[in-house]
Amino acid sequence: MPDLVKNMSKIGKLPIIIPKDVRVSIIDSQVKVVGPKGELVFGFHGQIKVEISEDKVVISRKDETKFTKSLHGLTRSIIANMIKGVTVGHQKTLELIGVGYRAAKQGDDLVLNVGYSHPVIIPKTPGVDMETQENKIIVSGSDKAVVGEIAARIRKVRPPEPYKGKGIKYFGEIIRKKAGKTVKAVGGSI
Q1: At what angle do helices 144-157 and 66-87 cross, to 10 degrees?
Q2: Full residue range of the structural domain in which residue 144 is found
Q3: Three-state SS across the chain?
Q4: Which tens digits make up the pLDDT trace of 124-181?
Q5: Which of 59, 76, 135, 188 has the most crowded Cβ, counting Cβ within 10 A?
């Protein structure tokens, strides 16, 4: 018994509690989660076993290969994020830093003016909401992976540069600034 506990994934062995307003169903090798904020589906690997018991989801693995062990905690984390996404939702906040840098909504699309000669338009993605407040962009939705992907796409338009820190960065992200070149005085007057 001690060997079994020692070899279990620390994250994978934790059961996921299902809230009252969420329905979780398993069909073949797919988990379907339905809640107040939407519906998400995830296909898990055949070596992973997902079971629903009472108000909990329990994930276990069928064998002890390295590959299966690597999927155990991952599958548990994805299903937990799905349940959180359909109840509370996921959110990423980005900050615009720079003189004249602006973000605005134009219909459902996001328009960024970040120092280029033209505005950059980020089209609306189904299931993801984009809001703007002063110098912040808030990306929210029920699918954590899609919210992160859209936030990364927005940040990629103008990543923060290391000398002045201008650009689009995640809220709370620390930008390490570099020292600029200094001009040394040359002997004699000009």
Answers
A1: 90
A2: 90-170
A3: CHHHHHHCCCCCCCCEECCCCCEEEEECCEEEEEECCEEEEEECCCCEEEEEECCEEEEEECCCCHHHHHHHHHHHHHHHHHHHHHHCCEEEEEEEECCCCEEEEECCEEEEECCCCCCEEECCCCCEEEEEECCEEEEEECCHHHHHHHHHHHHHHCCCCCCCCCEEEECCCCCCCCCCCCCCCCCCCC
A4: 999 999 999 989 999 999 999 999 999 999 999 999 999 988 999 999 999 888 887 8
A5: 59
